[in-house]
Amino acid sequence: MISTTTAGPRRALAAGAALTLTVTLAACGGGKNNNGGSGGVLTVATGSTGNFIRNFNPFAPQPLQATNGMIYEPLFHLNAAKAGEIEPWLATKYIWSDGGKTLRVTVRTNATWNDGKPFTAEDVAWTFQMAKENKAQNMYALPIASASAEGKDTALIKFSKSAYTKEYFILGKMKMLPKHIWSKIPVKERATTLNTNPVGTGPWKVKSVKGMTMDLVARDDYYFKGLPHFKTMRYRSFTGNSAVTAAVTSGQIDWGGGFIPDIKKNYLAKNKNFELVNIPLATTFFLPNAKQGPTADVNVRKAISAALDRQFMNRSVYDGQAPVANPMALLLPNYESVLDPSLKDAVIETGQGKVDQYLTASGYTKSGGAWEKNGKKLSVTVELVSGWTDYVSVAQLAKQQLKKAGIELVVKAESYAQWSNNRARGQFQMLLDNSGYTPDPRAYYAQLLDSTIPPKIGESTNVGNFGRYSNPAIDKALDEIASTKDPKKQKPWYYKIQQEFIKDMPAIPLFYAQNEQEFNGNRVTGYPTEDNLYAAASIWLDPDGGWVAARIKPVNGKSGK
């Protein structure tokens, strides 16, 4: 059994069956006072999302950012930026048994919902039982068999099969809900209710949502004493990346996360106290629909991949700061421990010869410089968010490169709401997207490839495998990885996944995604840095953004008005 305190140095999480965490201080920023909200306004940029819709339903395709981490909280904080680091959140201890089929969780006894009701193990058990009984609420496709409470501080969750692979989602992603609120909502309405005044355990309550501004107000009874450090957390939305950039570079934003071209010149050089934290947490993909349309053909996917000049895109769009991904889509160096040694030097196939080889194998012929089949030219539509200007540039370059190879790429820029809805329902041919944001390679590959996650096309999922890819060999490998905590026994199955990925290319890897987070050091401190990466620094990341938001501090008591 491993013991650690949040006041001392963080230690790597061992691969044992039990973990005990003892809380002595609020991690990364316990204040001198017993109540949070000692500062003024923390202003953050949500990006180019347009007007806010007052929806805090964690089951909705597009809940407001504040829903996850700021209002609703998980059991533990699994640091997305550092594999193996874990800290208590709503729970203080967990123990696996029965080969990953039984999980016993000890929850806090000092946490309350923001309506004053106590948070108990009954809430935890009910949240998991609700997910078991309704697939729409089982967001992470957990194999839950039963959930029950043992007194006020212990929840017992049993699974129909080993759930080790799902540990990150069970402990670090699934948000606890108040039984006394959600049990009164009819089952059929739980996914559609707007939940405009959410009751959560988090450090913030909703104050107002108006147009492109949303204000949260700090609770004065949060169980992490002294947190949060700001009285108000203000979200600002914008119509596009250009508007975000203007606000961030002019110092209006305390914490931003938008792409800024030539960021050294256009941001860092503008003020000596502006700081950039850039830790890649994901892989950028062209995500094809593997179930229907032209990209359901593996040879079409491979031909599209072979036609792309990723290095040129990297230099042109990201100033060389987005390294080209590998063909097995393994996020490196984060997951180097599970890299198949035989693939350590593997690179993505490129060139017209490969394009010709794959399309010819699928019965395509070239006519007038364009590939066609049965009299119909090969045309693929890629959807992306119109305000994400770097992705727009990547797509336009891809369009030019594919045209040269004889493939038509139709670029469809749309609102985030439309894009995310199409993604959730699998109603697309190809998306420009990214995947990752987990310290666990098990969760990474499961999110991307597990065929048990997505429902049929037309039904919604927020979890992953949006392209509806299915491969029994990968499913078996994920199950085998889930059956043991022994890394030596897991590795051959990780190797199998990587080999199958190269063979099938269910997603088309592009780059290691950039994760530029800008902090106005004139006004804020206490945020994650490379020297103190206590969480992923992304304001939008669920739930690390919430962990950081409670711990970021005003500089010398200064803050926004």
From TrEMBL:
Domain (Solute-binding protein family) ranges: 85-452
Upper taxonomic lineage: Bacteria, Bacillati, Actinomycetota, Actinomycetes, Kitasatosporales
Record-linked Pfam families: SBP_bac_5
Native organism: Streptomyces milbemycinicus
UniProt-recorded name of the protein: ABC transporter substrate-binding protein
PANTHER family documented for this protein: ABC-TYPE DIPEPTIDE_OLIGOPEPTIDE TRANSPORT SYSTEM, PERIPLASMIC COMPONENT, PERIPLASMIC BINDING COMPONENT OF ABC TRANSPORTER
InterPro entries in the record: Peptide/Ni-bd, SBP_5, SBP_5_dom
Signal peptide boundaries: 1-26
Domain of life: Bacteria
Keyword Signal included in the entry's annotation: yes
